[in-house]
Amino acid sequence: MTSVDTVAPADIERLLGELTVTEKVRLLEGSQSWRTHAVERLGIPALFLTDGPHGVRKVREVEGAFGVSNNLPSTAFPPAVTLASTWDPTYAARMGAAIAAEAVDLGVDVVLAPGVNIKRNPLCGRNFEYFSEDPLVTGVLGAAFVRAVEARGVATSVKHFAANSNEDFRFVGDSVVDERALREIYLRQFERVVTEAKPSTVMCAYNALNGTFASDNRELLTDILRSEWGFDGVVMTDWGATHDRVQSVWAGCELDMPGDAPHNRQALLDAVAEGSLPVAVLDEAVRRMLRLILRPRAVAEGRHDPAAHAELSREIATDGAVLLANDGILPLSASEEVLVVGELFERMRFQGAGSSLITPTSTVTPREAFDARGIGYRYHRGYRSMSAGADGVLEAEAVAAVRPGETVLFFGGLSDLEESEGFDRPSMAMGENQVRLLRRLTAAGARVVFVMFAGAPVELPFAGDLAAILDMHLPGMHGGEAAARLLFGEVSPSGKLAESWPLTAADASSAADFDRGPRALYYESIYVGYRFHDAAGTTLRYPFGHGLSYTRFAYRDLEVREADRRVTVRARIDNVGDRDGVEIVQLYVRNNRDGVFKADKELRAFARVPVAAGASADVELSFALDDLAYWDVEAHDWVLDDGAYEVLLAASAADVRLRAPLSVRRGRAPRSPYPAEVDAAYATPPRTLPAAFPALLGRAVPPESPSRRLTMETRLTDARRTLWGAVMLRAVSSRVRTDYTRALALPDGTERDARVKNAHFVLRMMPFQSLRSLAMSSGGAMPLHVARGIAELAQGRPVRALRTLSRKTPR
Ligand code: BGC
Questions:
Q1: Looking at the predicted structure, is the pLDDT value of residue 575 above 80?
Q2: How far apart are CA 602 and CA 781, in angstroms?
Q3: For ligand 1, is residue 768 a contact (CB within 6 Å)?
């Protein structure tokens, strides 16, 4: 791939001089869902944008905001949950390069990726699209991906900025986060990606952050993103996230997506005409857009090699799978016949649902991979994955096939109807049909190996009865091949969890205030994931960083050196088993907690270390002393506390192998910027909303919205309270329901699965939309004045509503 320069800065100033105000305003909005506007008379082309994140989802025809399943085929790589479990930025870079090559071939200019939100709670429906609960893992992999895509002349869009941690209330929610948690947990990975990898665009989130919607949030989009981090690209909205278009331009949000919202255009035109939006502010936004549109473009040098991309997706799936448990049953011998149970064996679940749904170029299911190897097996479907209810006949057949003591491979996990963008899971439990079947199989004397396909942690109360658990996460389009390689020992598993697995969702640090309403109180502050579990002593199913191998590793000879404010840590890793393997070595630093409350330890570096059977390898890891700084809310800056720290080299957050003291004398004497009640309440992580939360926030907790009236911001589900609201909800959902019913009626196969997923996603998401978000994301299908009219009708103002509905000029 080469790139060509198309425009010099002087040309941009010339274009600015020639563009009319209307043309400028149009350049700041999308068109037909996936394009920007062209200004043909001046030779300004349109950009084409597509999702992201784990492939290029170019829609076959522009079909409005709702369609996500009619896409041109592309490589469906493993989603972020799997990529993160490799802990390998070179995989992120190789995937990025491959995605960029496909984007170039498909004429795509901007890939809406990566998603770098932090996994605050295991129930978030979109966790599969995000990397980790930890900002370092997320930031390192996210930056590697962005660098690789941008290096090939394709723009990225780092999303969703910021504190978008739940799906249920995403269109109307307000994430209430204290300044320190914001900086240390929710912004830190964005900061790394922006400062190190220089993405061309950032996508702001739907939700509000501390009372101001992200799209209108000047502190976020200008003060932090541009002034502090030096971002000089374009901020676009998530699809339908604009609230107040004029305010959003003031705030630093250039591009309104999907656009085609006449009232937004008109609002900008009016503001410029009235002088409330200075032309200079508009011009600066347009200048940034022009720089994006006219940036050096990639030119394909011959088409990409789909086979090589498929192989890369298999490699990532193989090295991202995590062997959670193994009593020694794995690896299996390829010459022994096994009983295989579970529909996912032949209808593998390889990606999540929602806007990231890729149409794969090909798939390899576990069954196909077994057949290619000539593995002998008896197969029983056991359950239907697209339904939570048990199928008595399928279940009985599978159980009857068990010969006591034999190995049973159970293929299961979460279904597409349980885990998706657009809504959260109500609990971490797996479908009752699969749980029952698993229990019956073990009760029948089977030695069950659970091959799991799920994008997020699930409850495993039966784990003790299983012989092994191999978590494939969501392995991408050739995940079946990866599963076979691992099960039959062609490769030793090497992935490790990039998130903690609590026993149930009740054990998550955010459990007391997750999805309780639109207002999300992040009362747990910095105590997210292992930062909480370490200090709280939670009994976990599996800790952060956990993953087994077919071999074993020993750690020795720890050396810690400090020079030029960098700490370098060396050690030797011995492979003490009889198979080649890869160990993911994690470097945590135990914090000095003399002054202010802190997590017990935090991840500071990590590496994948390949070690041949019986051999040893040296590992060197390093971090900057300043990485140990915390965010001081008085100084509004990072501050390094002097004192005693400890370097910990670990195989997981709960498996520290080597330790050495680290004394820091290059910072400040420890002290706390908080009132004493905050440090007292947060010295041990809170399990419920502490009385000190307002003091931590530095202000009163905002009230929950008390209004019972249907407004533009009311969730549609709440609209049922009024007659008109109920009528409107019925009308909107009936169209979506029809799509769903039609999809269900299709013949069995991948096309049906994709359409069912898509329709179910829209159906489940619908109640969480507000009238405003619905209008904004409908690409013109529901103009805003119609949505306003409906709200006014529901408020009992029919005359006003009629006037609004009959309005010709959008406002
Ligand atoms: C998602 C974004 C996505 C956009 C376009 C939104 O609903 O939140 O991640 O890029 O749609 O499909």
A1: yes
A2: 48
A3: no
